[in-house]
Amino acid sequence: MNNYTPMIKQYLEIKEKNRDSILFFRLGDFYEMFFEDAIIASKELEIVLTQRDCGGGEKCPMCGVPYHVSDVYISKLVAKGYKVAICEQLEDPRKAKGLVKRDIIRIVTPGTIIDDSVSEKGDNNYLMSIYIDEKNIGISYCDVLEGIINFTKLRFSNINDVRKNIENEISRINPSEIVINENKIIHNEIIENLSASNNLLFTIVDKLSIEDSIAIIQKKLNIDVEKTDYKEKSYIGAIASILNYIYIYQEERLQHLNNINFYEVDKFLNIDSHTIVNLEIQKNLFTGNKKGSLFDVLNKTNTSMGSRLLHNFLEMPLMEKNKILERQLIVEKIFENKKLQELLTSSLKDIYDLDRIIGKLSYGRANGRDLIALKLSIEKIPTIIKDLKDANDTILVKLAKDIDSLEDIYKLINESIVDEPPLTITEGNLIKIGFNSELDNIRNNKVIGKQKLIEYEKNEKEKNSIKNLKIVFNKKLGYFIDVTKGNLKNVPDYYIRKQTLTNSERFTTEELENIQNLILSSENEIFDKEYEIFNNIRDIILQNVERVKDTSNILSYLDVFNSLAKVAYSNDYVKPTINNIGIIDIVGGRHPVVEQSIGRSNFISNNVNIGSGFNNIQIITGPNMSGKSTYLRQVAILVIMAQIGSFVPANSANISIVDKIFTRIGASDNLYKGESTFMVEMNEVSNIITNATKDSLLILDEVGRGTSTFDGLSIAWAIIEHISTKIKAKTLFATHYHELTELENKLDNVINLQVQIEEYKNEIIFLRKIIKGKTDKSYGIEVARLAGLPKSLTDRAKTILKNIESKNEDSNLNIFENIIEEAQMDIEDVKRDEFIESLTKVDINSLSPIEALTLLDEFIEKAKDL
């Protein structure tokens, strides 16, 4: 390092303190990257990798981006999971003595990025903090532009509890970055696995003491922790850790970040990580996109705030009946008023993201266009208030009265900010004429200077007989007199030469310098004054931040309620009755996502009745592809919809509040943990058995199929017995083990259901209706045929099946010996079947005489070999 140049040494010293970040090092008009950072950035950003002399005759890799477009490149890196440290010049290079002072002014990470490319997506961008102490896990999370820190506490008894609880919260919250304290319980391997499986960034931070945590919260949030009910070490530590991380290199207090919100996990419907994925609540299971999810069906919101709130509804469905009914009631009022739906939609679609605007103002990153967006949004509020009042409904009128019209803020922005402001806030043209008298006077001086400049140019032309004399301005020379070569003989002595060009000379004069000083000093004063005025306007708005946030909150809820009402109206949903007695009774229920995909007319509805005591556990049999999985998911999804206050796709519905929904659906493995498909299945079932209660809803699909037939059947049998006698939860258990249907006669709370099918000419027709009764055939071979397996193969499977079914179960070995022997003897039969099948496929009417004779000849030759 001794041989490096002073600038490279400075870079390396700063880089050493930020080894986990890509360092954007300011050099003039560029942010440069060196060494390994340059190699990574050039690849990820697809920019040219060059070299730079770094001292001692060595060269180092280098790449860079222009500083004025750096946000675009920073966003790309952060989207790929990198941290970016911004190293800025702290003094004017022209005035610096020696090496320019530089240091980190900001670190941009996936959870703290605040540029427009992120805020315009309409999703929450959560930073999450995990603080683990001896007995509890403290969880806090925050969208840095919204400014509310949500927090809770989770208890644990062993390492598996810790991992499961963290996985569940990660699935529910879906953060982009996690801060976790150093601890002895969650080691690096677990963190790496969680990071890889959830595609998010983990940062390990020092563990804060309770004293330091309290001090941080009191300083950053102005909250006296001792006077609150929240003194638990785990969540105090989680809140302090997230604040510490947000405030790295952020000196000014963020005025919008001023609220903490405690939530109890047990107060909301608990949906574990596997269920969130299996039910495709937020994302499609196969594409990972919102399209094809429950959120996608319900999301007819018109604002980004409403879209994020709907996500929150689905993340945390309610369990308090009265709160569910409160939501239902507002949805119902809008549902019944089609005109109001249209009016609200028209107004809400013109409202910008108020939460994001306030966040950007607080961070000092908002510009004039953000204030105009705020003004245009506020402009729509009186119309929304009027439309709600005109609906002439007590509930909607009360809602209208709770909305602050923010007229004073509208007036302030309308009188101060020009209608089409520039992107920058430091180069003028931002404040309206007449808003500030001091600014108007400075502007007047500039006008006077411009007028003097015009007069001076006119006088110099006439006085010196130089018709093409021009006064020109550029950033390097300022104002100058341009005279062509042919007119140089007329240039007076008082002209001072500034620059010589091929075809002209450039001059200045003492009077021109005075006029220039008047103009430029006025311009600089204007820029400074407009920037000062803009910041004053920003501060006034931020002093009213709670009012804006309250209004944004109400508009968000209104947007979601309007969305749910519109979806219910257009998709023919009904308002469900909500009960606390454990009964789910649905007539004509439909899967909201599937029916959107295949069309309402093509979807077969089904009734559901579970929870009456005798039918708490329902064993469902029927072939694959017949609709069992859709039915299972459908029941769970309708319960979730009911508990967020939504209407549901059905003819009628009476739905009990459930405390937890667990699913065991589909086959998967955990290769990075060395766990097989069956091990994963048993882990999930273990979690269900351990945590389910009598008020839970369990969706179990083909449990036990990952191992041998008799092992799997035994496990499935024991699981149903355990749920029946120990847990008594509402359970839908789909299976191919027909032997399990015998449990209806042995357990008083088990009933059998089956998927109705019809057999016609040795083919099966799926009616996709769930009815009482049991299926004693799996129809697996028929399904295989429908899937396109060759007829010879499926016919052979039928032969094998008949042999197995005809043998005595006590002589299994002989059965399979006979099967093998028979297979060897029947190879010719297989060839014969294939030959006959190829014959049946010939369309004689489409063949020419020559083609028919050729084909006949081929068949004769094949027949000789049979």
UniProtKB/TrEMBL annotation:
Protein name per its UniProtKB record: DNA mismatch repair protein MutS
Organism: Miniphocaeibacter halophilus
Lineage: Bacteria, Bacillati, Bacillota, Tissierellia, Tissierellales
Gene that encodes it: mutS
